[in-house]
Each structure stands twice: as structure tokens, then as C-alpha cells.
Amino acid sequence: MTTHPVLSVPGIAYGGDYNPEQWPEEVWAQDMRLMRDAGVNFVSVGIFSWALLEPSEGVYDFSRMDRILDLLHENGIAADLATPTAAPPAWFYRAHPEALPVDKEGRRLSYGSRQTLCPSSPAYHEAALRITGALAERYADNPAVAMWHIHNEYGCHNNSCYCDTSAAAFRDWLRARYADDLSALNDAWGTTFWGQWYYDWDEILPPRASGAGPNPSHLLDWRRFSSDELLSLYRAERDVVRKATPATPVTTNFMAITDALDYWRWAPELDVVANDHYTMSTDPEPEIEIALSSDLMRSLAGGPWFLMEHSTGALNWHTVNRPKRPGELRRNALAHVAHGADGIAYFQWRASKAGAEQWHSAMVPHAGTDSQIWRDVVRLGADLRALAEVRGSTGTAEVAITWDWNARWALEFPAQPNSELRYVDLVRSWYDPLWRAGVAVDFVRPDADLSPYRLVLVPGLYLVDDEGAANLAGFTERGGTLVVGFHSGAVDQNCHVRLGGYPGAFREVLGVSSDEYFPLQPGETVGLSEGGRGSLWSERLRLAGAEAVTEYADGLLAGIPAVTRKAYGEGTAWYLATHPDPATLTSLITTVYTEAGVETVRMAPEGVEAVRRRSPSADYLFLIDHSGLGAEVTVAEDAVELLTGKATPGSVTLAPGEVAVVREPRHG
Ligand code: GLA
Questions:
Q1: What angle do CA 343, 347, 349 make, to 5 degrees?
Q2: Residue 592 has pLDDT above 70, yes or no
Q3: How far apart are the first and last CA of the chain?
Q4: Is the full-model pTM beyond 0.85?
Q5: Is residue 519 part of a domain?
Q6: What is the Å distance from ligand 1's center to 347 Cα?
Q7: What pLDDT was estimated at residue 464?
């Protein structure tokens, strides 16, 4: 993981995806000059170069890549050399049409874009390891290569294939999971329902389109298998490059809060956790999502991580692609650093003039250097140089939010009590008030070591295994504060309902039990006795040791507890049996974290994000003004603002839309 001596690049790495093969070589010299001007010291190369590197099977042309790596090295720019296996060449598909993926409806896709492959295809495995081996051998001792970038965004576009080869691989995975015991699988999948009992492993198929709804336990194992199948591709390529260059760190780029893969299983396999993050044009407050996904990456990495891609401006894959607002490029990049990134990179260096992403922004825009984006890119390079000493410092959270891909997948399977529930929306609604208040947050697996935290929040954890549930109860018993959201703990690791009353796994610690769910229709709300309204959910809850903090004030369940609280061991456990409106949720969460003794990073005016990174000798306070109003914030007497290099004794002034990074020495 990232505790690895990461990169040979000093300070905070800065750069982007570099695709010089799209340009005549005259442009390359200009690229080098501009990269030096901007302070770029790190680029990813060769991500989609397979067709150029291997013009026909087993025949290689490394001449272009040789020249690119030489040029980068001469200019002091480190290369993150990619294995190009996300975009197999046309010749490969013509020879192996069976390596094209089949979708749920049974249609085989065509080549002509990228990331269109059957993860279980033996032909693809062989070809991917062949080009990986050839690259590893060729560039093992190349001084430009500072990191290996395996593939690109595993699981992007397609994360599973439903063909017969994949079906056979799925069965192998299931045989391993259930120790070759078909009756164990039948039990785990509840196949007595709708007569789905299997008598032979060969009867088992991927969850292909069928006449009626799928079996959730089957779907869940399929999602687990699909994530593991891509992970085994990653591992195979990683092992090839590691063998040739054991000292060079290896990464692959994650896709932020995607549901494609279970990154808790992936992260330990990477030397450096790297993330790609894009803000959504329709999100009025993208800065909250940046913070959330960065906190998730820091948590996956267990420390600093690397922002492998984000955008300087507009994307091309939203309906309407908005550019960044004035100063937003800088605020976004430095927010990633604030939340733990030790490298900042973009997709891509130079905006393409042709191809599927010709309207995607880049560091060098179509307009060239006489552009706002270029001026911002150069300024950011100087900022990152000024922040060199921040590298390696970590977060300081006392609050954790559980994050679990199994729970997320299962919550969003069809045929739920309320199919409007979205895991990320639930998590974000709880994260939101903490972000606004400047409370630092980590994300944790339910079975993680929770001893560093005072408060653990559990929104939308529909599925939890016994170990995770016991761990959360144990944390509470030992004095922690636990807050559980509705429909959490409802099913076990096989997606079987936990019987005896909801919320199954957490009934005892919460001291409540309900016999029936009353989910709310879209737009429907229920009044709450202490003020505000709830949406999405209500349930007929009975107290079994807890006290009611708030009751439903109207509707069918008027007078029934909606929010409860119970002393459990040395700690306290809360249950939220509805989705309170933002103001009500904010006031509840504020009460909870205040009572739990959680401190905010720094008192700052509304709209000013305050984040802290900590090293053994200093705290680094990042202040980011999203309000557009500027602010004055109290800091230590011996503080220095790093972006300007000026001493800021006692307080720092933040101009509208600007960022300050204040070093506060740690004494004693
Ligand atoms: C992903 C890919 C890049 C590019 C960007 C565009 O992150 O990895 O190759 O397509 O999206 O936003």
C-alpha cells in the first residue's frame, strides 16, 4: 500500500496522461518545454498504445516508446509506464472473436472502442501477459520508469461478461467459495425458492436475462466473482512487471466511488492507491463529493494516495459539460491534496483533436497556452512545489463511516421494500453535515479496527456479516458512539433476511425491533415530533431497551419512535428509522458528534472547507473557500502559509475563492 517508498519523484508529483503518439514528433519538443514551464514531473504513458507497440502478434515496435521515455528522462520527468491491455488491437479480436464480451441479453459486443473484453478469456489473458512481459523486459532498467500503471480503470464500461467461458470461470470461483459442496451453494442461494435447486455445477449460469426477477444471492456472488475476476487479471500483470522490476511500485487507477469493484479487496494488492475522479456537471456542490471520494481513497490506502486523473475543465461524457468556475481547478486539485493525495495528475496532457474524447478538456487546451486553463495549470504547478513538505502526512479523523461494496450491491438489487434507495446518496447525506462542519472522516469496513474512532456512522449497511455486526457492537460496548441508519443489518452475507424483527443484526445493540417496514413513496414525507420531516422510510418500531428521541408525528405510524438512543456498555447507540430532511439530519448528527466529544478541524465560516493533514512535526491546515466570500481564520501564532511562504501569526486571511495551506508546528 502507500506506505511503500512510493515514487522517486520529489514532493507532490504533478502531471497527467501523456499520449504523444497522437501528435507528430515536432510537438513532443514543445511538450517538454511546456511541461517544464508548468512544473510537470510525472506522466503516464502508453495506456492505449497496444496496437502501436505490437503491430501483429508477437511482433513489437518499441521505437516510439523508446524515444518518448528518453525524452522524458532527459527532461527530468518520471514515467508511469502503462500496460496497454485496456485496448486490445483489432488484429487480436479478429483472431479471437471469442474474447469479446457477451452482455446479459446474450449480445456479443464488437471491438472499435476500448475496454471491451471478456475477463475470463484465455486468449485475452495470454495476449495481455505477452505484451506486459515484452514491456517489462524492454524497460526493466529504463531510468525514466518510476511506476507501473497496470491496465486502465478495471471495470470501466464493462465489468462482467456473460458468455459460456465466463460461466465456466464463475463455476470454478463458486466451487472454491463453497469448497466443492453444491448443497452449501444451494443453501447460500436459497434455491428452494422458485425451484432453483441445482443438482450439477454445470447447471449454474451467470445471472443472464430471464423471464422474471433474479435471485439476490446469485447476483451477489456474481458481483463478487466479477470483481475478483478482474482482480486476478490485475495480479497476473502486476506479477509479471514485479518479477522484472521488483523495486518499481505498481498501481492501477481506481474509479472513485464506483460500484464496479470491491476496492477493499483490491487496495492491498497495489503499492500505491491511485484514483481517477471527475466531478458531475449536475452536482451543485461537487466539492463535497471530492472530499468524500478522497477520504475513501485515503482510507483504502491507509495513508497518502495518488490522484491519477481528474479534469482541468469540461468533460465530454455528461449531457451538457460545464467548464470549471474561476479558481475551481485550483480548489479541486488542492482539495484532493488536503484529503491525502501526494500526486496530482490529469486526463490528459494535450487535448486531442480526433477520437472519442476530442471534446474533453486537458492541461494544454485546443486553444494552446493563451488560455485560462493553461495559466491555471502553471499556477497549480507552483502551488504543488510549495507544498512539497506536506507529502507523506496523514489524516486525523475521529469519525468513521462504514463503506461496504457488498452492502451497496445488495441494497440496489431489484425487488427491495424501497427500490429508490441509493447507497451513495445515503452515505453522502450523512457525510454532508460533517463536511460542512469541518469534521474529519475516514471510511471503514464494518469489521475494521475501530479503536481510533469516537463515533462510527452506519448509513445504508443493508448487508452485514456476523463479524461486522459484532465488531460494531463491541466498539459501542467499549465506549464508542454508534449511529445506524434504517434498513441496515437486514440481511446476512448471503443476502438472507435476519429473522425475528428488524434491523436484524443491530437489534440488540440498538435496543429496538420492528415487525413491519412502511417505506415512503417518492415525494411522500412523514412529520417528526421534534421538528422536520422524514422521507424514503418509516417502520413500526418497538422499543426494547432504547428511548425514543423523536417519533413519527403523523400518518399511519404517528406516535411510533422514529429516532432512538440507547446506552450500550460504555457507549451509546442511535437508530434513525427514517431519512430526515437535511436540516434535521444536520442537527441530529451535530448533537451526536458533539456528545461523542469529536472536535472539528477548525472553526471556519460557512462555505470554507477546513481539512488537516498531520506529520510528526507539523499540522497542515488546508482552508478552501467555496463560498466566494473569503474569510479570516484563526491559526497558531507560529503558523506559516505555505503557498505564499508568509508567516501568518494568529490568523490567516483567505481571499474569495482562494486556498491557504497553513503549517502549524506541533509542540511536544
Ligand atoms: C477515464 C479514463 C480516461 C479518460 C477519462 C475521461 O478516467 O481513464 O482514459 O477516458 O475517463 O474523463
A1: 90
A2: yes
A3: 29
A4: yes
A5: yes
A6: 6
A7: 98
